[in-house]
Amino acid sequence: MPVLWTDRIRAAGLRVTKPRLAVLDALERHQHATADEVLADVRTALPEITVQSIYVVLHSLTDAGLLRQLDLANSPARYETRVDDNHHHAVCTVCGRIEDVACAVGHAPCLTPSETHGMSIHVADVVYQGVCSDCSAQRAGATAVPV
Questions:
Q1: Are the beta carbons of 14 and 29 closer than 8 angstroms?
Q2: What are the binding positions for Zn(2+) in this chain (predicted)?
Q3: Alpha-carbon dihedral 132, 137, 143, 144, rounded to 10 degrees
């Protein structure tokens, strides 16, 4: 495990533990993973870890700002380690693949709210929904007439 995570965990005021390091390592390998996906990965290194422990670790790391929780429509919560920017996500409506979108450009969607309702806005979440290139290619192949 890179020293970077150890330092970041300590800087967040948390103790460095094997479960925390294992969860961060799993999410480095599998961005946008669900708790169940994190559990399956972590159990390869820590077979005794429980579902409850995974949720406790995910929530403590999220509260400490080391993880970001994604709440997408019709999907369980997903987690990622990319927390230092205000990036967005593109979700394939066919297969569910999620990709990071570094920056929203152009006029729409608007990232500056017309009304803040007295809130100090920290993050603007934008989710682009569409069909990924793999699913588009499969659809095109399925509709092609064999010669």
A1: no
A2: 92, 95, 132, 135
A3: 160
Domains of the chain: 3-70 (1.10.10.10), 85-143 (3.30.1490.190)
Contact 49, 61 (CB under 8 A): no
pLDDT in tens, 57-103: 999 999 999 999 999 988 899 999 999 887 889 999 999 999 999 87
Sign of the alpha-carbon torsion through 107, 93, 72, 26? negative
Which residues make up each annotated binding site? 92, 95, 132, 135
Contact 100/82 with Cβ under 8 angstroms?
Answer: yes
Q: Is pTM beyond 0.85 here?
A: no
